[in-house]
Design goal:
With 803 residues, the chain is an alpha/beta fold. It has 22 helices and 18 strands. The N and C termini lie far apart (99 Å).
């Protein structure tokens, strides 16, 4: 080893690099010796300033160098051999004996182990006692070696029945629906309904924020990457120091209920009874020569929204509006207070068309849908006092003006004054939308959104609690299907808890306005869970025509909560569209998604037969007991069925290769609207030369484009991911392309050509008598429809330009 060490040291000190040696001379100075590399210099060449120096730095001869190289090779081989031997011995000492090893191998290993133990002789103090000597020492076994009787079994092999399913093995649709039904149980709904039941849940309150945090934690527990969307919105509330008042002769009323976003101030005029305040009701008043300009109109709640009632009255020149619940429509105490809002629109009315992230960065503005006259709710008892004294003519029995309050004549009034004072105040309020997501495995950038409002006036059991419960239970069920059952949704599922829904879908609308550039072409469908359970025995739904086929197929798959049949039978069977479908109204929580953002949307409700409206909305009577009475005490079972129905629609859209959106369903809607408009034009344009042929041509383009999509669907290989994605992008363009690009979202936020509101819609054009406006709107509507057809075609070289 000394020889090897010496060779190694000499190698290190070889002449491969320049060296500088400083040594003192005899006179105390220093001398520098420079040695260069062998390369390019003769072996005998040496450059020095002095012949003196350390012998180890003198250049070796050629023979010495060869000897050193030989020693170096031998040393390296020795080290490698030694390392290999040590590794082999170490590996053999720890190697397990296989179950199939031969007897000779076992004997050799046994001898080796015994020899190693013998070399480790115990100390004298550790010698075994005499009493223990007769015991024969057990032959040592290799670590973890299986017993001979277990040798044929594969170590740790799972049984066939316990073998886990491959994580990428897709579940078929039958498995998915079975799992969803198993996980959405009435017992789970009972617990969550109880956990989320609050005495008060008004928007922006401490209770509301507490519930938002609870939902956030639920989503976090499910590993759904939750996040908050915070807005600062203007909510109108009563002034505690200056209550709203109604003065009628010697009677003064101070109702606790109110209508948010009413105009403030005092109005006085003749009180006039106008039934529900519909256009046909106001025509009855005009037929009876009742003066509407400057009057205070007394209306009963129902049939249309509060906002529409106030807008209709203001259009006729009324000075103020009072709204009450009539006992014919609402079977509860006459002292019950009503709450609601009168904004003819959605979202924060003081940030129309843009989000309310921070009011300070925007100029003051307001929605065109805000009322210009004061509006206030009163109780049925207050209304009875007024109706008994207003006088005036009696309407015809066929008009439907007769209500249900006993001993009240229901005359039209017009002769007695009444004074209304509204002192509501605007409050800048922080509200939180809460989201969780289950991401898709193929197209995670395509979303199906399910949502429910979290706030309500009072307890809001049916209004908010049931929907919020369905939302969270569905999230839990789908998460468990992904984590434990191998479900792999192609697209993402987003679960949203909305704030300030009672003020006109404020939270949802502000989210749409704030992120539409990010949501465009990504949100495939919105499914509203608000008011999903309002009774038992009937079914009602509102949706985009694109979703009618999906609704029908889902109703056939989900069992009826009443008997062994399906929801399809409960909804009317083959006549389900006539019996159960309703046009989507502006107050519907899904409406801003459909009419403002062009997202195919649906809302559905289990109802009591022949009672479409849940009577306790907007009151403090919306509680567990009253909803239980409406569902015959099967609220949790009904909520579970509602969850299965919404869940199956959402999972269909997230699971299938091709989207379940039927573009052909719009053909009938467009044909009907175009026919009505054409008939209207024919009456007005005989002398003006206006021709509806362009509109007919655009309709034809739409029909051909829809047929082309269906042909492409039939010819597409669903295993071709890119082909499916391209085709799905064409399908989701339909709803968005029906939004008119020619109107401002500030002035006309509901821009949908067929389902929106405003002068741009085909329905409004069909009633226009101004020829100049008719010509302009007809041209814009025609090109909107043609643009939709072009978007459906996809490639620009295939666009139909026959128009």
């Amino acid at each position: 080893m000394d020889r090897v060490r010496s060779v190694f040291n000499n190698m290190v000190k070889g002449e491969q690099y320049s060296r500088f040696t400083t040594q003192p001379d005899e006179e105390g100075g220093s001398q520098v010796e420079v040695k260069l590399s062998d390369h390019g210099i003769d072996d005998a060449t040496e450059v020095t300033h002095q012949p003196r120096g350390s012998p180890c730095f003198r250049p070796p001869t050629k023979k010495q160098r060869q000897r050193k190289a030989c020693y170096m090779v031998l040393g390296v081989l020795l080290l490698v051999s030694l390392g290999y031997v040590l590794g082999y011995v170490s590996h053999r000492a720890h190697q397990q004996v296989p179950a199939t090893c031969s007897a000779e191998q076992k004997e050799e290993e046994k001898m080796s182990v015994e020899a190693s133990k013998a070399s480790e002789a115990p100390k004298a103090s550790e010698a075994p006692k005499a009493s223990e000597a007769p015991k024969a020492p057990e032959a040592p076994k290799a670590p973890e070696a299986p017993k001979a009787s277990e040798a044929p079994k594969a170590p740790e092999a799972p049984k066939a029945s316990e073998a886990p399913e491959a994580p990428d093995a897709p579940l078929d649709w039958t498995d998915i629906t079975r799992l969803l039904t198993q996980k959405l149980t009435s017992q789970a709904f009972n617990k969550t309904l109880s956990d989320f039941d609050l005495r008060s849940r008004s928007a922006g309150s401490d209770e509301d924020l507490l519930l938002a945090n609870k939902i956030f934690k639920t989503f976090k527990t499910q590993e759904m990457d939750p996040w908050n969307d915070i807005h600062y919105v203007q909510l109108q509330t009563p002034d505690s120091k200056h209550p709203n008042r109604v003065q009628f002769g010697s009677d003064e009323f101070q109702p606790k209920g109110y209508l948010a976003y009413s105009a403030t101030g005092t109005a006085e005029g003749k009180v006039v009874y106008g039934n529900y305040g519909r256009q046909e009701d106001l025509k009855v008043l005009q037929t009876n020569s009742i003066e509407l300009k400057g009057c205070v109109m007394l209306l009963r709640a129902g049939r249309i929204s509060f906002a529409q009632q106030v807008a209709n009255a203001a259009e006729k020149g009324a000075a103020a509006v009072l709204i009450y619940p009539d006992t014919e429509d609402y079977k509860y105490e006459t002292k019950t207070e009503l709450y609601g809002h009168v904004h003819l629109g959605s979202g924060d009315p003081y940030t129309p068309g843009f989000p309310s992230f921070n009011h300070t960065q925007f100029l003051p503005t307001q929605s065109s849908g805000l009322p210009t006259i004061p509006a206030q709710t009163i109780t049925g008892q207050m209304a009875a006092t007024i109706l008994q004294k207003i006088g005036g003519p009696e309407p015809e029995a066929s008009s439907g003006f007769k209500g249900g309050i006993p001993s009240v004549p229901y005359t039209l009034g017009g002769s007695v004054n009444i004074k209304v004072e509204v002192n509501n105040v605007l409050v800048n309020t922080e509200v939180h939308n809460v989201f969780g997501v289950i991401k898709g495995f193929t197209d995670p950038d395509r979303y199906v959104v399910l949502g429910a409002q979290r706030d309500a006036w009072g307890r809001g059991y049916a209004r908010a609690n049931v929907g919020t419960t369905i939302l969270t239970e569905l999230a839990k069920a789908v998460h468990e299907m992904v984590e434990k059952d191998g479900f792999r949704p192609r697209r993402s599922l987003v679960f949203a808890s909305w704030a300030a829904g009672e003020y006109g879908n404020v939270g949802a609308t502000e989210w749409l306005e704030g992120y539409m550039s990010s949501l465009d072409k990504k949100v495939l469908t919105y499914i509203s869970l608000d008011g999903a359970v309002m009774g038992r025995g009937g079914f009602m739904a509102s949706s985009s025509p694109l979703l009618h086929s999906l609704l029908e197929s889902t109703m056939k798959e989900v069992k009826s909560p009443l008997d062994s049949g399906s929801m399809y039978d409960m909804a009317g069977g083959a006549n389900w569209e006539i019996n159960s479908m309703r046009p989507m109204a502006m107050e519907d929580p899904a409406y801003p998604f459909l009419a403002s953002s062009g997202i195919p949307s649906v809302s559905f409700h289990f109802i009591t037969p022949k009672v479409e409206a849940y009577p306790y909305y907007g009151t403090n009577l919306d509680n567990m007991d009253h909803l239980g009475y409406g569902t015959n005490h099967h609220t949790s079972e009904m909520a579970a069925v509602a969850g299965q129905f919404a869940g199956q629609m959402a999972l269909r859209l997230a699971h299938d290769h091709l989207l379940r959106l039927d573009v052909q369903r719009y053909s009938g809607v467009i044909t009907k609207a175009v026919a009505k408009l054409s008939k209207h034009i024919s009456k007005l344009s005989k002398s003006a030369g206006l021709n509806p042929n362009w509109l007919f041509s655009a309709r034809g383009s739409f029909m051909r484009a829809a047929a082309g999509i269906n042909i492409a669907i039939a010819n597409t290989d669903i295993n071709d991911k890119e082909a499916c994605r391209i085709l799905n992008d064409r399908i989701i363009m339909v709803e968005r392309a029906l939004l008119s690009p020619y109107v401002s979202p500030t002035d006309a936020p509901f821009r949908h050509l067929l389902l929106g509101r405003g002068s741009h819609t085909l329905a409004a054009i069909s009633e226009t008598t101004d020829m100049k406006q008719l010509r302009t709107q007809l041209a814009l509507a025609t090109w909107t429809l043609q643009g939709c057809a072009n978007a459906m075609v996809g490639e620009i070289w295939e666009i139909d330009n026959q128009i």
